[in-house]
């Protein structure tokens, strides 16, 4: 049977959930393949400390990039969300802080929650476009279902003209996907493929 220190965080979470659901200590130990004492220890740690980590205070590799430098690294990311780890590392090392490796920067970014994601695709809208959309939404927010049934919905296929599709990535925190710096605008041009539908017939014969 596995020892307490050998269990993954996933298995530790399973133990906590099983105990919270009322599963007995013996049955929980059998399900995850550990001893009864390990189940008791992990569940007690979760109750007392609010987590199940086996890492002892002061154990492990020390953090190379301290809090002040982390804030600087976060600022560098927000200046240009599309920079690669190599580019961020070069910028960071050009500053007053001690030089670090790309691996250290990558690990720190992940620890800060700044993960590399595909940008959210949004229509290319001007400020005037956004104002018109908001005005339209406010004018129609109280419509009934019968009124919406009289609407014909349409869409056109997209033809990219501003840039070539590629593996563009942005580095952001959870919940930042709709920030302008984390989106990729697109337009429709060059051709048209129209489609439409409504609740009933689109037109009378």
From TrEMBL:
Principal place of residence: nucleus
Record Gene3D superfamilies: Ribonuclease H-like superfamily/Ribonuclease H, Winged helix-like DNA-binding domain superfamily/Winged helix DNA-binding domain
Domain Transposase Tc1-like: residue ranges: 70-142
A GO CC term assigned to this protein in UniProt: nucleus
Cellular compartments annotated: Nucleus
Molecular functions per Gene Ontology: DNA binding
GO BP annotations listed: DNA integration; DNA transposition
Protein name: Transposase Tc1-like domain-containing protein
Origin species: Araneus ventricosus (Orbweaver spider)
């Amino acid at each position: 049977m596995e020892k307490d220190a050998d269990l993954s965080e996933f298995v530790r979470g399973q133990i906590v959930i099983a105990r919270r659901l009322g599963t007995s200590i013996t049955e929980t130990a059998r399900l995850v393949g550990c001893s009864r004492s390990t189940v008791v220890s992990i569940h007690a740690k979760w109750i007392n400390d609010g987590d199940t980590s086996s890492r002892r205070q002061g154990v492990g590799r020390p953090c190379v990039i301290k809090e002040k430098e982390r804030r600087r690294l976060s600022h560098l990311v927000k200046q240009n969300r599309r920079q690669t780890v190599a580019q961020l590392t070069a910028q960071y090392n050009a500053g007053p802080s001690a030089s670090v490796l790309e691996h250290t920067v990558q690990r720190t970014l992940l620890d800060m929650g700044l993960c590399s994601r595909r940008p959210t695709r949004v229509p290319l809208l001007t400020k005037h476009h956004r104002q018109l959309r908001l005005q339209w939404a406010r004018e129609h927010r109280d419509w009934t279902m019968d009124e919406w049934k009289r609407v014909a919905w349409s869409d056109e296929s997209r033809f990219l003209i501003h840039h070539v599709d590629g593996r563009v990535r942005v580095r952001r925190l959870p919940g930042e996907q709709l920030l302008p710096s984390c989106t990729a605008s697109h337009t429709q041009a060059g051709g048209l493929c129209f489609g439409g539908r409504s609740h009933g017939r689109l037109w009378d014969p």
